[in-house]
Predict the 3D structure of the following.
Amino acid sequence: MHIVITALALSLVLSVAGATAATAAETASDAVDTAPQESTFLHGGDPARGAEMAKLCISCHGHQGRSVTSRYPSLAGMDETRIVEGMKSLRAGEKGHMMANMTRGLSDQDIADLAAYFSSLDP
């Protein structure tokens, strides 16, 4: 009987140790996966942040940047640099357009984030 209890106790200890080692390995793997990575976008934009900001663009430029009217251009799949340059130009007031008001409060990083988001979408 003593041998059976000892064997069960040893089995339990080994199970817990194995589970702890597996959890530690998963945690280390997750830490590697979540390490900050350099942006793959030309202007250093974060498409996830851009997606959050783009909620304000939907009313004119359509869901996911696909406009349903010719009055407003579709932004989905547009070249990232074209979006950045266009928005900076609008923000500077170089084009007399209502978008000057919409872009006035955006930082260069905000514009890069929006450009990363819209350029990453399928047209």
Observations:
- The two ends are 72 Å apart (CA to CA).
- The helical segments are 2-33, 47-53, 58-61, 80-91, 99-103, 108-120.
- Residues 47-120 form a domain with the Cytochrome Bc1 Complex; Chain D, domain 2 fold (CATH 1.10.760.10).
